[in-house]
Please model this.
Amino acid sequence: MERPAWAPQGIDLTVPSVSRIYDFYLGGSHNFEVDRQAARKAMEFMPGLPKIMQANRAFMRRAVRFAADEGITQFLDIGSGIPTFGNVHEVAQAANPDARVAYVDHDPVAVAHSQAVLAGNDRAGVAAADLRKPQEILSSPVVGELIDLDRPVALLLVAVLHFVEDADDPQAAVDTLRDALAPGSILILTHASYEGIPLTQEQAGGTVGVYKNIRNPLIMRSREQVTRFFEGFEMVEPGLVAMPEWRPETPLAQEDPFAFSGFAGVGRKA
Model:
């Protein structure tokens, strides 16, 4: 198989990657046939997956603008994936050219591609680190260079916690990150759930099975379980809701029913 110029050396092109599958759903070009096959397989069970991803991105952009309007100039995006159009640094730096953005991902493809996209942008960078090891993120030179933890930070955990299994204790990772943040910091979070999906749990379970088969289990959590990640944060109105319901800019009636799958919320650290 031909290795495209943007794919880093040493990447196994025969193994699907969550960040490249996500890129495919969003209409991006940084994915391989193996990723497209996995994505199409998942869509056989849940045809609305691209709609869910688009709603996720749209929420993220609204939440980043909200944080910028609140005067936050530092953004730490963990599990950032492949930077497709309208990414955090574009939204944040459009609102404030001085905004700083540190991206973090453990997928080498996402990291390599982020480095290419961010070349020449001295207020944005990417670190190769894993949410399951929050101390590594906090002590990363890239994060240290861009983010001053003594000042408020917007922490983005967008569509990433549902790839962390309970055995890896996602709550402890979130708590460690929260404790490192200054008061006034903001948590921006989305999470997959069976709640809100316009399918039976059995049908939706087929998609979960596809992710399990590519060794990236998708962990569906309930509203109550997702709410727990906001411990130590005060929920910003309208609270934990379906992604299109968080401060919408367009009438909800125009949204695809799949867009209401899962949860989104923003919290502020007191």
